[in-house]
Amino acid sequence: MSASGASAGLAAYRPELRPRVLLSDPLLDGAATVHLIKDTESGNSFKVGAKEHFLIARMDGQRSLAEIGEEYAGEYGRRLGDAHWQQILTMLGTKGLLAGTPVQAPPVTPPEPRTLLRGTLPLVADADASTARLHRVFGFLLAPWAMVPLLALVVAMEVVVVARSGELLIAVRELFTNPVLLTGTAILLWLSTALHELAHGVVARHYGGQVAEIGLRWRLPAVIMYCTVDNYLHLGSRRHRIATAVAGAVMNLLFLLPFCALWLFAPLDDATHQALAALLLLGSVQAFAMLVPLPPLDGYKIASQLAGATGLAASAGGYLRLALRRSPEAAAYPRRARIAYSAYVLGTVLVLAAVVAAAVAGAHHLLTA
To answer: What are the beta bridge partners of residue 48?
Structure first.
């Protein structure tokens, strides 16, 4: 047996992952810490623990099992024998993750039945190439010299929206008495949701992401666009993943800027002026609603990244139930997990309370106006 714990035959072997195998950062999953592994060729993904990730991440074709075993022994204080190595290598080989092994076929999932009431429809043959073209045209807006002034304008716009919220609420009420302007406003809000989805794809592409599909999804009466980022959880850094998640809401607000300028400065008739005011309020609500930290909203993805967790809502709910029962299992959670789950629950309650308070205040203003 070699110093690594592997026999001489295994010790010299230099395993190498396929180039398109992606490993995630450490993520909380309940009380455990896991890493997500994704094979972008087959689309298969699965979880491994910290120790398995330590070994797999070092399979670069340069280090032998003996060298990897020495590093493992230095980190965890124990050596792996042949049986452990064989188990790990067999698992990786069976899943087609090692160079030289057949790529595992993705699981066959029947397409969602498409009916008049519900379904999906891909809109482009190559979503990644289409997103790349959009990025070439609009990617310059993601540079700080362009994005910082745009965000400053968005902040200024939202200050005006809050300061004149009473006027905007009355405009929304009046909008619903004008079917023509109401239809036009609804079309603009739908266009904003389409741009919201494309913004996710363009920002993900900016950070090395891969867009798998762009299309339409309908659950009548709702019809929306969707954009699927295939490797969102494996983007280069947490900051990149948060930027990708928040991009949609930022796009919603950027979309409103020219309409805000028209509302503030253009000579308009009263009906158009009120319609633009209503669009500003409804569009702002639409944008910020997406940042509420509940699944499947963008705010939940952002919260998950801030917490460094996968399955955040389920994990936080499980921990909260244990904590409320004063179960010893709750105390067994790592400190990082206890803080993350408690912060998520408290933050979500505060956000929902603020939403309810704003809705009540708005309704009261309309009733007394």
So the answer is: 35
What whole-number distance in Å separates Cα of residue 155 and Cα of residue 165?
15
Task: Report DSSP state, residue 16.
Answer: B
- SS3 state of residue 39: strand
Q: Who contacts 304 (Cβ-Cβ below 8 Å, separation ≥6)?
A: 310, 312
For residue 233 the two structure tokens come to 């959880």
Write down the residue that tokens 């280090």 correspond to. 63
User: d(Cα 56, Cα 58) in Å, to the nearest integer?
Assistant: 5
DSSP labels, 127-192 = HHHHHHHHHHHHGGGGSHHHHHHHHHHHHHHHHHHHHTHHHHHHHHHHHTT-HHHHHHHHHHHHHH
* pLDDT(135) > 60: yes
Beta-bridge mates of residue 237: none
pLDDT in tens, 221-253: 888 999 999 889 999 899 999 999 999 999 999
Unique residue bearing structure tokens 């990730």: 53
Question: In this structure, are residues 88 and 10 in contact, taking their beta carbons and an 8 Å threshold?
Answer: no
Q: Average pLDDT of 293-320? A: 96
- Segment of 97-111, 227-241, 245-259, 325-339 carrying the highest mean pLDDT: 245-259
Torsion sign (Cα): 99, 101, 102, 107: negative
